[in-house]
Amino acid sequence: MTQANDFIYELPKEEQQVLQEHDSLSPQMIFKIIRREGEIELQRPFPALAFSALAAGIFISFSFLFRSIFHMYMGNSSIEPMISSIGYTVGFLIVILGRMQLFTENPITTIIPLLSDWSWKKLLKVSRLWGIVFLFNIIGTAIAAVFFASKYTLSVPVENAMSEVASNIMLLTPIENILRGIPAGIIIAALVWISPQAKNFRFAMIFFFIYFIALGDFSHVVVGSCEMAYEVIKGNADFFTYCFKFLIPTGIGNIIGGTLIFTLLIYYQVKKELKTNKKQSFDTNILKNFWFNILTKH
Prior knowledge:
With 298 residues, the chain is mainly alpha-helical.
C-alpha cells in the first residue's frame, strides 16, 4: 500500500467505511470490468448475438422516428436542432439500457479482451462478433425502414418530416461521413468506459452523450443506416449511395474513433500498471507456494 493511503488506517473504522463507499473505481478496475463483459460477449452463441443485434437495429430506429416527430413540430425554428436532438436519444436509451448488441459499443468492449490477451483465435472471435452484430444491426434498421415507409404506418406530416431529416445525411461526402463518424465513435466508446462508474445515473449519462452526438450532427452508422434505408425505399436514394457514400465510410469513422483513438489510448494509459499488478500477483503466489512447501515439509 502506498504512503498516500497510509493515513486511512489511522482513521476510525466508521470513517474508513465512509471513504470506501465514496471511493471511485480506478482506471485499472474499469478496464477489468469491461474486459470481463467483453469475454462474456465473445462466448455468446450465434442465435443470442443475432437476435440481440436484430432487436437493437429495430429499436434504435426510434431515434430516427422521434427526431423526425420533434422536427415536424418545430419546423424551421432556430432552436429546432436543440429540441429534435432530444428525440435522437430515445432509441439509444432503449438499446443500451436494454443490454442489446449495438455495433458501435463493440469496438471497446471486445477489443479490450483482445489487447489484454492477444491471439489469432481471439481475433477470429472478435471478427465473428463484429460481423454478426453489424450485419443484424443493419438488417434490423432495414426492417424498421420498411415498416416506417409503409403508407399505412405513419401520417403524411410525419413521413415528410422523416424524409427531411434523412435527406441531410445524403448531403455528406464519404470523407465527411468518415470524419463525422470519428467523434461519434469516441463518444460511444467513452459512454461504455464510464458506465461502470455511473451506477444509478446511467440514464442521464446516456441521454446527454447521445444528445450531443445529435446536436453536433455527427454520423452514427446504425441510426444513419435506418435513415438511408428509408430514403432508398422511398426512391430518394439508390443502393450504391447507401453503401459507398454512407454505410462503409461512416462505419470506418466509428471504428477509428472507438477503437484506434479511444480504446488504444485507454489501453496504453493502464497497460504498465496492469503488468505491474500482474507481476505483483505472480510474485505473491510464488511466495505463498514457497512458504506452503516449507511448512508442509516440516
